[in-house]
Amino acid sequence: MDFERIAIVGAGAWGIALGNVIARAGRAVVLVARDARLADAMHRERRSARLPGVAVEAAVTVTSAIAEAATADAVLLVVPAQALRAAATALAGAVGAAGAQMPVVACAKGIETGSGLFMTEVIAQCLPRARPAILSGPSFAADVARGLPTAVTLAAHEEALAAALARAIGSPTFRPYHSTDVRGVEIGGAAKNVLAIAAGIVAGRGLGASAAAALIARGFAEIVRLGRDFGARAETLMGLSGLGDLILTCSSPQSRNFALGVALGQGAAGASASNKLTEGVPTASALDQIARQRGIDMPISTAVAAILDARLDVDAAIGSLLNRPLKGEG
């Protein structure tokens, strides 16, 4: 499994960042943008407004032709979670029979609304002969694009595939640790976005550092309960794609989810939650639905979903959490 040519579908900030880091690792990279004019400008000028101040590496070929992905050894789908199905469907049409056994890596953190499917499940539906994988962990696009040290998790059902993909895209400053716990990695990435909105609300409401620490700890307990129900491994939830990503996203204004929570905590109308790039917004309702269906206690996530759906205001949601019966920790 020598992945010398890698296609990236999605030319947003994260797609550009991954394209840069993979090119620096010595791979040929094809970056597929949805808009032809955007692709032409980016290929010619080697820059994008999506990631200001960062040059697109010379080894990255930018195109709007998704058919170029058919010649790749592996494909990364770097689009928002709710757009992943459309991207996977387009990829399926482009690769056809050539896509058999092709590794397709989801680089989105979320749960599909309506279906309640995780990202690799969406890939499996759209590309049933492909080999789905997931890339997740504590990472901001600007840091990765600039070559700042970052560690993430890359999971696939086959250990050899996960390890080979990690070697293909890894470098001294971008370290993908490999795993076969696909669902555990997906749960951490999806749930932490919802919890980051809650952490932002705590900050925006000025509830203090003690409340922020408690929120992260009790939010992590929710991730553990959900992960345990799905058979996720403890080391995955405690690792980069679980606790690591939760800490980053719940503590930095660079996170769209945290920033949205701050705005809500400061009194912004719930309509501001409609930002499509804030992954935690659509994921909140999907996560709440899964928790209810499986009988998993996730009060913080449920409160966030209620705020975003305008079923509770911020103060009522905070009150509902603070007035829960005292119980043993777990």
Please tell me about this protein's structure:
It is a single chain. The chain is of the alpha/beta class and 330 residues long. It folds into 2 domains: 5-180, Rossmann fold (3-Layer(aba) Sandwich), CATH 3.40.50.720; 183-322, N-(1-d-carboxylethyl)-l-norvaline Dehydrogenase, domain 2 (Orthogonal Bundle), CATH 1.10.1040. It has 14 helices and 8 strands. The protein has helices spanning 13-24, 36-45, 84-95, 119-126, 141-145, 159-169, 182-204, 209-229, 234-237, 240-249, 256-265, 280-294, 299-308, 314-322; strands at 5-9, 28-32, 60-63, 74-77, 103-106, 131-136, 150-156, 174-179. It has an 8-stranded mixed sheet, with helices on both faces. The longest helix has 23 residues, at 182-204.
Label this structure with key terms.
alpha/beta; 330 residues; single chain; 14 helices; eight-stranded mixed beta sheet; 2 domains; Rossmann fold; N-(1-d-carboxylethyl)-l-norvaline Dehydrogenase, domain 2
In short:
This protein has 330 residues and is an alpha/beta fold. It is 48% helix and 12% strand.
Fold topology:
Blueprint (H helix, E strand, L loop, with lengths): L4 E5 L3 H12 L3 E5 L3 H10 L14 E4 L10 E4 L6 H12 L7 E4 L12 H8 L4 E6 L4 H5 L4 E7 L2 H11 L4 E6 L2 H23 L4 H21 L4 H4 L2 H10 L6 H10 L14 H15 L4 H10 L5 H9 L8
Parallel strand pairs: 1-2, 1-4, 2-3, 4-5, 5-6, 7-8
Antiparallel strand pairs: 6-7
Helix pairs in contact: 3-4, 7-8, 7-10, 7-11, 7-12, 7-13, 12-13, 13-14
